[in-house]
Write a structure and sequence with these properties.
Blueprint lengths: L9 E9 L2 H15 L2 E4 L3 E2 L7 H4 L4 E11 L4 H19 L6 E8 L3 E6 L7 E4 L2 E10 L2 E4 L10 H22 L1
Antiparallel strand pairs: 1-4, 1-5, 2-4, 3-4, 5-6, 6-8, 7-8, 8-9
Length: 180
């Protein structure tokens, strides 16, 4: 019988959907103040394959991803998502708007997968605690990235996948450094 063992730490990542570059920089600064130095940042990708957030956020949306230097326990994901929700609420209050100035979605990357946090339940999502679910987005294989039936449309594109492969390389290097 296999005995349970401690989970390997994971690479905390965060996706930010936004319209204003200045707001993104402010969010990035607050994320780093909470989670430590970002060791990787994607280019800005057009968030244009769905109109899901347009009513709340307007058109012309962009999405960027950050990864953070400090590895974290995977079970910390619900707390990260709840804190990100608070940061969204602060941004809304500071701007005096009713819509959503930014969508901040934390997740984590392992050697084999990209997992994002969400507060929305669905058949393929796994409850983690405190109303937060795990959403498996991508699988990493020996030959590249595998998408799933429910992978978000923008993550099916090559630029974000190339970014996550590069972050995975950073993560694997960090694991090797910890082990030896």
């Amino acid at each position: 019988m296999a005995q349970p063992k401690e989970f390997d730490p994971v690479k905390l990542i965060c996706g930010v959907i936004y319209r204003e570059g200045a707001l993104y920089q402010e969010v990035r600064k607050r994320l780093e103040a909470e989670w430590g130095r970002a060791d990787s940042e994607s280019e800005a990708f057009a968030f244009d394959l769905t109109g899901y957030y347009e009513d709340d956020m307007g058109g012309g949306l962009l999405r960027r991803f950050l990864s953070f230097e400090t590895l974290v326990p995977p079970e910390s994901l619900p707390e990260a998502k709840l804190w990100a929700n608070e940061l969204e609420a602060m941004a809304r209050e500071e701007r005096g708007v009713t819509g959503r100035p930014a969508n901040i979605d934390p997740g984590y990357l392992t050697a084999s997968a990209l997992v994002m946090a969400t507060a929305k339940d669905f058949t393929h999502r796994i409850p983690l605690g405190r109303g937060i679910y795990a959403h498996l987005e991508l699988l990493f294989t020996r030959t590249g990235v595998k998408t799933l039936e429910w992978t978000y449309p923008d993550l099916r594109r090559e630029p974000p996948q190339a970014y996550f492969r590069a972050v995975r390389d950073i993560y694997l290097g960090q694991l090797r450094q910890r082990q030896g």
